[in-house]
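Late entry, written up from scratch paper. The run itself happened at the end of the previous shift, but nothing got recorded in the book at the time, so transcribing now.
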Amino acid sequence: MDANAVSLLALFETKMQLEVPLFQRQYIWNREKHWEPLWEDISRKFSDYLDDRKETPVHFLGAMVLDQKQTPATQVGKRQVIDGQQRLTTFQIFLSAFRDFCREHGCDDLADECAKFTLNEGRMADPDVDRFKLWPTQLDRSQFVDVVSAGSHAELMQRHPLRRRPYARSFDPRPRMVEAYFYFYEQLVSFFIGTEAEPPQGADVPLPTRVDECWLALRNALQVVEIDLQHGDDAQVIFETLNARGEPLLPADLLRNFIFLRAARRGEPQEALYKQYWAGFDDPFWRVEVKQGRLLRPRSDLFLQHFLASRLTADIPVRHLFVEYKFWIERQAPFSSVKDELVCLARQGRDFRRIIAPAKDDLLYDLVTFLDAFDVRTCYPLLLTLLDIGLSDSQWKNVSRVLESYLLRRALCGLTTKNYNRVFLGLTRTLRREGVTPEQLGKLLREQSGDSAEWPSDDKFAEAWRTTHAYQVLSNPKIVHVLKRLSDTYVTGKMEGVSVNGELTVEHILPQHWLAKWPLPDGSQGLSTEALWAAAKDDPKADMTRKRHAALQTIGNLTILTQGLNSSVSNSEWGAKKPELLQHSLLPINQQLHAADVWDEAAIAKRGEDLLSRALKLWPRA
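Output as recorded:
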């Protein structure tokens, strides 16, 4: 057999059909396990080319095993797909979506060029079959033909509209290949068109230019290993060997081998270097698996991923880690020796350990506890850069305040976290180039704009604070963190510190089930859900009921307790609830409730303003 690395597009460049044998399984790829990772690989290469980083290593999509099939000279040449049919089929679906996107947005020349890689041209013995570059198994052919030949998103939607059976909650599933097409088309629209709130990458460059650059990425940056079987090769044996269930090496294993092999070749003392600098990474701490996206990854892999991202200021998926690291070392030669490389890795490894498992007396503890509560880990490359540069204690306090303010204000205003990776890598790149100070970090964050990156102003933050349904934008751990930090602002030098070791619970002071025991401001009973639906628009009682429902979900009505109240006490009238609430928590934030003889919308608004004034000082936009 012959094995060669070739562009994935090259497999479809000639007048040829790749035929999936009838005994192969149907198309089984799905969104979470397959389409999303493939799109991540493709979009990453798109981004590289749009950022003019064409020198980055090509991405290999695996091996394709093809067998020659005897065909008359008058027909389209054919090869059987022994292994790789799921990837090849998915890529044909993606090309169809890319072609239709180009045509829909006025890039007709590129759409015509793309079409040459999905359909054969010229004379054919059986055009209905031979025109397709890939021919799937019999059960998949109908949906595949629809996807490739429909010619537009609208036409495919017309052929496969969304349908829902009576009383069903969700739409009926469409054929899997059709769903794959719509998934990729949506991703292309998001990547190239974006929205007013989230403009696309390179929005200042005309769309045709951006699409052309990405076509070059498809041609040059995505490769496969093409294995052509020769006469006498056993296709089944080769298939079983390629799909053997061996235990794959982790990126950290591959990098360790790469590093110490180079040390040996350079004559540097392998064993001494291992003991002094690498042995710490073999500690059980680094083998603990943590969730990263859809998968569990050992901490060692996550450290190396964030370390490399901090150095390259580019997104580095874990599955590309070894290739990207090797490329960085060989092309840029950032270290004069393997020893210098290991010194840096060991130092930053200790830094990363502070980030993910800080001691309580560590200066980073408050910041990384906040990041954990708010589930933000995309700023780890920035933190590694800041730790490597070496900030003073006062500088770290300022950095912590700036980052926490930026992230908390965005969270409370319900703004997206989608582009945090790009935002923080951009900050890392600029700070490395222009110098690191808390003032410079604050300046760069204040310059961010749009829903995807802006640092909300005091006015915008205050409006969200007063009116937003807290649980619509913040999870329970986030609300607990906010209220705990606010509680600490009430501590004075004359008060004894309150140590909280257990979990805190969030309590609605005016309960969510208030109708029975909490009259409206005019003394009347509020309306039930059914009565609200039936009420007239100008009904004053309905208006007061809606206002109460809105007020009780704002931060002014939320507090934290060291021990939860049972439901009967929680829903009791204020006179009965107040002493129980105070008894169940000595936290300073609750001691302020002693003075509240009445708890209603006015009291909620007053407390909300008090908390807001403290929040603006805790998390300033400065």
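The chain has a mean pLDDT of 89.
(Scratch paper discarded after transcription.)
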